[in-house]
Amino acid sequence: MKTLQRVLAIVGGAFLIGTVQAVVFGPVTLGPANITTGVDKPKGDPGRAPADPPPAIDGNDTNEDVDPGAAHDAMMDDLQNAVPTTTYSGTGATDPLLDAPVPEGSLTLREAKKLWDEGVYFIDARHEHEFEAGHIQYAAFLESKLFDMDIARANAVMDSIPQDGTIVLYCVGGECDASKNTAALLEQYGYTDLRIMGAGYEHWVAAGFETATGSDGGTP
Amino acid sequence: MSDTKPGAKLWAESILLQLPLRVGLGGVFAFAAYTKIGSTQSFANAIKGFRIVDADKYGHLIVTAAYTMPWIEMIAGVLLVLGLWSRASAVAVWVMLVAFIAALIHVILDESISADCSCFGDMNLVCESTVGWCQVIRNSILLVPCSYLVWRQGGLLALDRVFRDKSKGNDPQWTVDRGGEGA
C-alpha cells in the first residue's frame, strides 16, 4: 500500500513540476498550421539562379550522383503496391509519379516541382543526416527539433526567408509528420504561405529532379 | 531470528547487484529525462507521431504527457540512484517501460506510422532514432534489472535503510531482507 502511495506521489510531483514548467515557459503547439494548397501566387526568391544548368554552391551544395532511371522504376513498384491510409486527392493522374495521389491539401510532385521552378523556398524537415545525404537543391534544413535545441540555427534559416514568402516543406512523404510539425512552428513565427509537398524526397529523386548533398543551409 | 545484522550474502548482493543496478537504471532514466525536459515541443511532437490518441481531439492529453513524463523519469531516476523509495521508483520505472514497449509495438505493427522514438531526446542510445524492434529489445532488457529492483528493492546501501521506520527495527525481515522500505 505504501508503495502505491509513493508511486502516486512521484506521478503527482511530476505533474506539479510539469505544470509549473508549462506556466513559466509557455505551452507547446500541437495544432496543425494553416496550409496553403495549390500552386497559385507563389512568392519565391527573385535572386535564385535558374535550375538548368544547376549551379554549384560553394562546393558544398553539389548535384548528387543518382541514377534517376533505376530510382524511378523502384518508386513505380512502391507506388503500385502502396495502400492509401487516408483521404487522398489527385489532379487527374497523367503520370503515375508526378501526379501520384497525396494526402489531401498537400502538393503533388508536379505541383511542387512547378513551385520549385518558380523559385519558392523549400524546407527539408527530415533528420539532419538525411538532409546531408541528399536533399532538394536549394532546400534549407529546418527540422522541428531545431526550434527546441538550436534556435540560433532555426533563426538563421528564418532570417533568410521573408515572412510573406512561399515555403514548401517536405519530409519522407506519405504520412510523415515532420513537415507539418515544422510548418506549425513557422506559422508561430509569422509565416503565412506554407505548403506541404505530399510526395517525399525519394519521389523527387525518382523523378530525376535537382538534388544536392552536403550540409549547407541550401538557400541561394 | 533475533539477529538483525545483515549477513555477508546480503552485503554482497547489495554491493554487486542492487547498487550498480540502481545507479545504472536510475542514471539512464534521469539522463533520458534531462534530454527531454528542455525540448518539450519536440517531445510533444514525438508523442503525437506515435498516434496513440487522436491529436485533434485529445491534444491536451499529449501536452500533459509531454510535460509530466520527463519529470516522472527524472524523479524516479534520481530516487533510484539515491536508493530512496526504491521499490516505488522501480515500480514507476517498470510501468513506464511496459507502456513504452506497448507504444513502440503499436507503431511498429502499424506500417502507416513512421515515428521517432525520442527516448533520449535528439540522441540515439544503442538504437536508431526511428522506432523499430531495437528499442523494444532495449527496453525489454531494462525491464530485467527493474523487475529485480521491484522484488529486492535498493539493498543495504540505499538511503531507504537510513530513513526506515525505526519502530520496525527489531523485525529482521524489515531491516535485513527488505533493505528498509515497507511494502
Explain what the structure shows.
- The complex is a heterodimer of chains A (220) and B (183).
- Helix content of chain A is 38%, strand content 10%.
- Chain A has helices spanning 2-25, 68-81, 109-117, 128-133, 146-149, 151-159, 178-188, 201-206; strands at 88-89, 102-103, 121-124, 135-136, 140-141, 166-170, 193-196, 211-212.
- A four-stranded parallel β-sheet of chain A has the order 5-3-6-7, with helices on both faces.
- The longest helix of chain A is centred in the N-terminal third of the chain and has 24 residues, at 2-25.
- The model of chain A is unreliable at 52-66 and 82-91 (pLDDT under 50).
- By secondary structure, chain B is an all-alpha fold.
- Chain B has one domain (14-159).
- Chain B has helices at 8-37, 40-50, 55-82, 86-109, 133-152, 172-177.
- In chain B, helix 2 (40-50) crosses helix 3 (55-82).
- Chain B is elongated and about 60 Å long.
- The two termini of chain B are 20 Å apart.
- Mean pLDDT of chain B is 86; it is low at 170-177.
Secondary structure blueprint with pairings:
The complex is a heterodimer of chains A (220) and B (183).
Chain A: H1 2-25, H2 68-81, E1 88-89, E2 102-103, H3 109-117, E3 121-124, H4 128-133, E4 135-136, E5 140-141, H5 146-149, H6 151-159, E6 166-170, H7 178-188, E7 193-196, H8 201-206, E8 211-212
Parallel strand pairs in A: 3-5, 3-6, 6-7
Antiparallel strand pairs in A: 1-2, 4-8
Chain B: H1 8-37, H2 40-50, H3 55-82, H4 86-109, H5 133-152, H6 172-177
Helix pairs in contact in B: 1-3, 1-5, 2-3, 3-4, 4-5
Largest sheet of chain A: 4 strands, parallel
Unreliable stretches of chain B (pLDDT < 50, length at least 5) are 170-177
User: Would you list the SSEs of chain A in sequence order as H and E?
Assistant: HHEEHEHEEHHEHEHE
Strand content of chain A: 5-15%
Count the beta strands of chain A. Answer: 8
Give me a quick take on this structure:
The complex is a heterodimer of chains A (220) and B (183). With 220 residues, chain A is of the alpha/beta class. Chain A has helices at residues 2-25, 68-81, 109-117, 128-133, 146-149, 151-159, 178-188, 201-206, and strands at 88-89, 102-103, 121-124, 135-136, 140-141, 166-170, 193-196, 211-212.
